[in-house]
Write a structure and sequence with these properties.
It contains 2 helices and 6 strands, in the order ββαβββαβ. By secondary structure, the chain is mainly beta. A 6-stranded antiparallel sheet has the order 1-6-2-3-4-5. Strand 3 (45-50) and strand 4 form a beta hairpin. The radius of gyration is 12 Å and the shape is globular. The two termini are 25 Å apart.
């Protein structure tokens, strides 16, 4: 089931499926470019380390800890993956 990153509970492992892009955009929005520069790519497996429902969401991607604002996190579409990926973040 797909959901946006801002709705994922802490300590979950998810895969980036897509990004929300407004229909009127001809070019890739700058926030997507910046996320990709930080390693948040389609198909990437990430760990949600902290999500309290307010403030930024802390994630682990490719061994790097990042904090992403809730507005941007609401534009990242993810799906939860099974436990086999837990070892990647242990």
């Amino acid at each position: 089931m797909y959901e946006t990153l801002d709705r994922v509970k802490a300590n979950r492992i998810v895969k980036v499926v897509d990004f929300v892009v407004p229909k009127h955009h001809i070019h890739i929005p700058q926030y997507i470019v910046r996320l990709q520069e930080m390693g948040v790519l389609k198909g990437e497996i990430i760990e949600v380390r902290r999500n309290t429902g307010i403030g930024p969401i802390e994630i682990n991607v490719k061994g790097t800890k990042l904090a992403i604002g809730r507005g941007i996190a609401s534009k990242i579409i993810v799906e939860e993956v099974n436990e086999q990926w837990k070892h990647k973040f242990s």
